Amino acid sequence: MGHQHRDGSAGDVNYGRLASTYSRYRQPDPAIAAFIRSFLGNARSVLNVGAGTGSYEPEDRKVTAVEPSASMRAERPIHFPEAIDAIAENLPFADGAFDASMAISTVHQWADPGAGLLELRRVTLGPVLVLTCEPQELDRFWLNDYAPEVIATESRRFPATQDIIKHLGAHSVVKPVPIPLQCKDGFNEAYYGRPEMLLIPEARQACSAWSFLAPDAVERFQAHLIRDLKSGAWDKKYGYLRKQPTFEGSLTLIIGLL
């Protein structure tokens, strides 16, 4: 069950503490943005729930943003619409108020994902886009060899794709999201071909799962990865990823259709 932090964060991570680091490392990636945008169709009005600092909000549509964290709201670009202080489970909008809606890398933070998804469906006439991670695909990423605790944490936090579909409608479509090699959005899998990035503490801090790890587990991860990078063991096993243009891991876009 989620809880409320002093800055208004509705989930299990205090984004008041992470906001400035988060916005530095978590920039919207153009390829992922285009992928998401392609499923908005001709929607003019778009609701973005758990909007954070505004990543992936389409600037060519009329966007209404909802974000419970005061710190995240304060980090939004000045030309973006001011976000409404509300939570997914209790949206202050009429039925069918929007042509489309988005929930980008946020569902795992909601106190009651099912209730939040039903609210999104209620206020949306057209597609409901949910960018999330499929928990059963997380172990495809090399990080599972070095910090299995991170993968296990993520697996517990992310709702299963089938559970999301259950609340969005039987006609939902599931699309794996190709992650580009130089992905600007620094979630863990964004560094599939750049392992050195996860040795930077600030880069890790921008991925909320790391905040659940005990310091000794982080130290073990660092020592193991540094050792394998120096010896060439990482490159022997995973070096091909350094030139692989995209990676399909757990990142998934679910398009809820009526």
Account of the protein in words:
With 258 residues, this protein is of the alpha/beta class. The protein has a domain at 15-138 and 158-189 and 247-256: 3-Layer(aba) Sandwich (Rossmann fold), CATH 3.40.50. The protein contains 10 helices and 8 strands. The protein has a 6-stranded mixed sheet, covered by helices on one side. Strands 6-7 form a two-stranded antiparallel ribbon. Helix 4 (113-123) links the parallel strand 3 (100-104) and strand 4. Helix 4 (113-123) packs parallel to helix 7. The longest helix has 17 residues, at 215-231. Residues 1-10 and 12-16 have low confidence and may be disordered.
Secondary structure layout:
Elements: H1 15-25, H2 30-37, E1 45-49, E2 62-66, H3 70-74, E3 100-104, H4 113-123, E4 128-133, H5 143-146, H6 148-157, H7 161-168, E5 173-176, E6 179-180, H8 201-205, H9 215-231, H10 233-238, E7 246-247, E8 251-256
Parallel strand pairs: 1-2, 1-3, 3-4
Antiparallel strand pairs: 4-8, 5-8, 6-7
Helix pairs in contact: 4-7
